[in-house]
Amino acid sequence: MKHLCGNCERIYDDEDPNVPIEPFEIWIEEEKRKIIVPVRVCPFCGSPEHSRAPGNQWEKRFHLVDIVKLKEGSVSVSTINLMTERDGYFFETMIFGSEELQLENYIERYRTKEEAIKRHKEIVQLLKSGRYKLKPSIYTLILQKIPEELPWHQKMILKALRYLPPKSLTGEVYRKYAELVRKEGYTPLTIRRVSSLLKELANLGLIECKLVSLGRCGRSKLISLKFEEKTKKGEIVEPNSFI
Ligand SMILES: [Zn+2]
């Protein structure tokens, strides 16, 4: 794949066998020690590919961030060099809402840095001038649909799904749910019980469950918050949020 070096911003093909590989040190926080790993480096300037190191320890790349305060809460506009080409694009702007302002992720991608900088500034201006229509996230929309009498554990399952990608496996949903419940100081229900609550949530139209075969491992379900499909598709969201 094509790679735009974060340091010298020249493009190379990272599958080219001539791209040099060098040993680099990585600090493993959990183990409190350094390890040496082989990493591809830019053939022009020797800068390592960032994604190989936890916490982007050698990261050197273009990244613009602006925090904009709106009356609803603050949002952050973040534009980066993706480094690895995605469908011909190397740069991307995302708008993130703060915790209380759950927003649909807004993404725009560009081919060049100049384009990215120009659009980043425009977006910041549009936000400041109030010409950005905030789209609530799917989770916020679902929250509005949740009947108040829905039992607490079911609410916690929905909350867990919010942190997971669409089509997560039952086990993954369970682990996240259990983690959230423990954080609140309670004991999670059994996975069997959670499985049946997932069925109830699907019957209520709040989630979607698809049965999949995992070969010898049996069967599992792929679980998503409902309507998630609509939003996760399309790499580039049409900028129709700007009015
Ligand atoms: Zn370079």
| CATH superfamily (homologous) name of the largest domain | Winged helix-like DNA-binding domain superfamily/Winged helix DNA-binding domain
Number of helices: 6
Low-confidence parts: 228-243
Q: Approximately how much beta-strand content do the residues carry?
A: 25-35%
Structural class: alpha+beta
Could you characterize what this model shows?
It contains 6 helices and 11 strands. 28% of the residues lie in helices and 30% in strands. It has 243 residues and is α+β, with helices and mostly antiparallel strands. A hairpin with a 2-residue loop joins strand 5 (63-70) and strand 6. Mean pLDDT is 80; it is low at 228-243. It has helices at 113-128, 138-145, 152-163, 170-183, 191-203, 228-232, and strands at 2-4, 11-13, 21-28, 33-40, 63-70, 73-86, 89-97, 106-110, 168-169, 207-213, 219-225. It folds into 3 domains: 12-56, no CATH class; 63-136, no CATH class; 139-230, Arc Repressor Mutant, subunit A. Zinc ion is lined by residues 5, 7-8, 10, 42, 44-45, 47. Zinc ion (ZN) binds at residues 5, 7-8, 10, 42, 44-45, 47.
